[in-house]
Design brief:
Elements lengths: L6 E6 L9 H14 L3 E4 L32 H10 L5 E4 L2 E2 L5 H14 L4 E6 L4 H7 L6 H17 L3 E4 L4 E5 L13 E4 L3 H10 L2 E5 L3 H17 L9 E7 L8 H9 L4 E6 L6 H12 L2
Parallel strand pairs: 1-2, 1-11, 2-3, 3-5, 4-5, 5-8, 8-9, 9-10, 10-11
Antiparallel strand pairs: 6-7
Helix pairs in contact: 1-2, 1-9, 2-3, 3-5, 6-7
Amino acid sequence: MGRVELKIGIVLTVDGVPGRGAEFIAETAAYMEQLGFSSYWAPDHALFFDKIDSRYPHSDDGTFNWLTDQGLMEPLMVLQMAAAATKTIRVGTSVEVITLRNPVVRSKHVATLDHFSSGRLDYGIGLGWMKEEYAACGVPWERRGERADEYVGAMKALWMQERSSFHGEFVDFDNVVAFPKPLQKPHPPILVGGVTKAAIRRSARIGDGWYGWKMTHDELDQALVLLALELNQVGRSLDDGFRLVSGIPHHGDPEDVCDYVKGVERRGISEFSFGLALSRKNWREQIEKYARAFID
């Protein structure tokens, strides 16, 4: 196929089982960089449950198919390991449930990783979909959108102001000393993930880009129309450096989705990621297939 304009990344499930831990992260990241991939992404969930009643938005029947006793390693720590093993590939969260972390503490984590990665961090954020996870973390499910907006505002204040102040309902501080500031200015790019209208509006209001996931071409068309309208409402446009990222989980032959990826590229998406569950033994061969299909 051969891609010229579209940047290709991989979202890797790193669960910490034997053979998929720190060494796996470093080796896969270094090999992806060697093959020409643009980005290495880490997904996020704090907890899972044997029974989940919440509807998963990215499956037809709303169920979330996850292995028993499987988890996810903490995304920023995964990305720190990937960044240490590479020099050019960008690292990002795909996407972090921002409302489950204290924003003051998390802002320091993000700024630190931005330094450790030499300014290669993309901070993908979302609200999540699992009500059970919110309850276990002691965070109200209600008004999570307003909470997320405040958390982003507070983080930006901590990153951008010499002496940082923020006064909101969920976060409040005045004239605090918060260093180091991120290496990227004014801060690491914030990519708002989600396929709902609310998520798309949020990306236009407070994001540096939008990250869509597992969308048909028709769904992507509708989302991009809404995104352009929402950006216009706040005096912005897609021509102002606003990043468009999308991706899909994939477990088959890369050639099977070439037409889909071509359609995504025609719609103006500039970065595309594949969510892969790599074999502990054959991961090199798996990654090579995607490189041959989509990277010149």
